[in-house]
Write a structure and sequence with these properties.
The protein has 2 helices and 18 strands. It is an alpha+beta fold. The chain folds into 2 domains: 105 residues, no CATH class; 124 residues, no CATH class.
Length: 239
């Protein structure tokens, strides 16, 4: 395969990755707390002996959108939404993780947990315990939880030190290898959940664009393959 073929093949691989990202965004358009993802392309330039250079693009940089999703009122006692920048802090077997999905519930031991059973942590990194038969539960804008007017705990709201280096581990959970700090300006709303921030219309349009670009690249590769075959046949016949 010549340089032109390698360049086109690299482009095709990047477009395939972008198609997977776009399809995942569309599939999670109704997932609470989901953050839309995009794909960035990096360029590699190689000098060629005798002058000139060869440039290849590679789609390998995933970018997470942190735009606020719409807030939907549910009235649920343990449904929390963050207004502004910030994430809830949760405990998993692999360590502390961040999420915007705030549909929680107490488990059998009284710990506040996520839908997947991960414990929600307070500002000190400890699990939040909801006393049984605690009666009326209230949550303040700073995440403070009270039961019948008595302090129970405070939900941690944190902000990654480097938002560009968030690593997605599943649809709504992230790892922050560069650490995090308290999100001072964020507000917690009780009885609300944050919807996905995916724009389905723009994602569908992007999917069509990527599909057409991929088809054009595939057509070029097919034409190049046919050209090489004809050239080889002509050489064999001349011999």
């Amino acid at each position: 395969m010549d340089n032109t073929g390698y360049i086109t093949l690299t482009r095709q691989m990047g477009l395939m990755r972008e198609m997977q990202v776009v399809a995942n965004n569309i599939a999670n358009a109704a997932t609470s707390g989901f953050r839309q993802e995009g794909l960035g392309f990096s360029e590699y330039v190689q000098d060629i002996k005798g002058g000139g250079s060869l440039s290849m693009g590679n789609g390998n940089v995933r970018q997470t959108s942190l735009v606020q999703g719409a807030l939907s009122e549910t009235g649920g006692t343990f449904d929390f939404a963050i207004e502004g920048d910030g994430f809830f802090l949760i405990e998993t077997p692999e360590g502390e993780r961040l999420t915007r999905a705030g549909s929680f519930t107490p488990n059998g031991e009284g710990d506040l947990v996520t839908f997947d059973g991960h414990r929600v942590l307070d500002a000190g990194g400890a699990p939040i315990f909801i006393p049984p038969n605690s009666g009326s539960i209230g949550v303040g804008p700073d995440g403070t939880i009270s039961a019948n007017g008595q302090f129970v705990g405070q939900v941690a709201i944190v902000q990654p030190n480097d938002t560009t280096n968030l690593i997605r581990e599943n649809g709504v959970m992230f790892r922050a290898d560069d650490g995090f700090e308290p999100a001072e300006m964020a507000r917690v709303l009780q009885g609300f959940v944050e919807a996905s921030n995916v724009d389905p219309i723009s994602q569908l349009a992007r999917m069509i664009e990527v599909q057409r670009a991929y088809e054009m690249g595939q057509s070029f590769l097919d034409s190049e393959d046919e050209r090489v075959r004809r050239s080889m046949d002509a050489m064999m016949k001349s011999n």
